[in-house]
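Fold this complex.
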Amino acid sequence: MQPLAITRYSIANCLGAGARAIADAMREGRSGLSPCDFDSVALDTHIGRVRGLESLPVRSDLGAYDCRNNRMAQLALELDGFAAAVAQARERYGAARIGVFMGTSTSGILETELAYQRREPATGALPAGFRYAQTHNSFSLADFVQRYFGLHGPAVAVSAACSSSAKVFGNAARMMAAGVCDAAVVGGVDTLCLTTLYGFHSLELTSHGPCRPFDAARDGISIGEGAGFALLERVGARTDAGAKRLLGVGDSCDAHHMSTPHPDGLGARLAMQQALAAADLTPADIDYVSLHGTGTPSNDAAEDRAVSSLFDAATPCSSTKGATGHLLGAAGVTEIIISILAMEHGLMPGSPHTRQVDSAMRCNYLVEPRPARVRRVISNSFGFGGSNCSVVLGTAG
Amino acid sequence: MRAFVEGIGLVGPGLNSWQASRALLAGAQAYRPAPTSVAASALLPAVERRRAGMPVKLALAAGSEAIAGAGRDAASLASVFTSSSGDCDNVHAMCESLATPERQVSPTRFHNSVHNAAAGYWSIATQCRAASTSLCCYDASFGAGLLDAASQVAAEGSPVVLIAYDHPYPAPLDVARPVSASFGAALVLVPQASAGAIACLDIEFEPRQAAASRMQDAALEALRAGVPAARCLPLLAAIARGPRETVILELVAQTHLRIAVSPCA
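Structure:
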């Protein structure tokens, strides 16, 4: 594919608000996970909660969209100069020439969960004031972002579980290649809700303590929440000096099982191969692999097989989910932005909470952060339904 | 963007397949609404067949007909799935469980709750590992799916199957989000005219408001207006009629798709 310039990005999750805070946390090897204290949830697990969302309503003209997920979106849209960069792009290209492609797994479903707790006893009706379209529906997030910036280009939500916000980079790249738009706001947001906390628990996939990706004693995921956004423009745009590049996107399906990965990581391997082919690179060109690395026994084992079947055993790799938790539909864009930070700051992230790397693993897993020159990264995101997406990123030139 | 339609699949109320519905969509036969009839795909392994909800049945039935019509191998075809709400019965059951003190959630219900469940079951049924995406654009989900599929055909020069489906929420969510029927439709879109191509589509995204094309038959128009996936009906009707015509599909934020439909032969 034609490389695209990632001219601006913003990020927020339990580690902090803004690229600077996240980069500092990566350097210090910090984790933002804490014992679960969300709503009335009584589960023995850790979560990556963003403090203060409860008192951050969305902009008043978009009040109908007010819910935890869109609050999380707005918090990140206002960081890192992102809103100003989109406003400038709007001036330059026109509101109709900027697409919006948003990944989310559960959008604002928390509103519906809470409404079901307050049903009218006689009729079963949901409480007055419940707004489905602006909160629960998967498109709510893309709708909110499009209205937030007053854009009128193509807009869509991608909801493919935990690969959602990696896939949006592919949707945007295709739409730009086909000439439908000149720039794209891509991103992903997911926030804590009962569906995912109790759902992953029902599958015995939530970790008892903080998650420990690739650890011999790993026992599941820590669910987190967060948002990440990126502005994509064509290479050669005025704003692209020094901007990191989106070089390739690879998509695949496992065709195996709804909630368990193919044991050999067949789909994961295909996604990585296709992303490398799209970037016109070989595995030897990759300096660092940003793993999906959720911390469940089967996910990490399958990903290790896929990665070690493609890359040299010395290629450094790690998962940042011990720091952020698993951001589900926002995991892809979050880890893509962390990969950009790795290139900008010359630091490969470590893996807080991982103590003893599983001796069965064959890839070169980094527990501690490692200072190093990073020029090419591949970032993996895999989800339920056997949905896989890998994204290759690089420095300019 | 140009794409050729090689195969079409359809399942809805009184619409048992594209082949069986072609004449009535063209206006040559009367439309008689009847409850949507669809079985779980025989392509699914027994466990998955038992676990498949209505959206999965709709998606697999429509997708299978479109691919059979195109004479393509489903195992190598990229796919775009699009739906306003995914598995509505499942969402309701989950929210009901989560409103009880026990909060016991079924693991199968949880993995079926992802918006890409239909895509997951499809890939298991067809053993397809090609690229796939799962989209939502509320009422404009079909149009957004068509735009994404067309951009794949244009940008990558490869064939893709577009599968759109929706089914109603049960009470009480049906009040907040009324969807009037279960409906699925699929199109196999390819970059070059082939011997079996049914129609040629020239698809343009236009950032202006325009009135959406409607169905002439009142009951079909009610179906189009009542189900997001059924917004495809004017496009299917134009293909069924044959001569060149233009179809407008409404998108969001005062935008639309203008589709010039022309016959292939």
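The longest strand of chain A covers residues 4-13.
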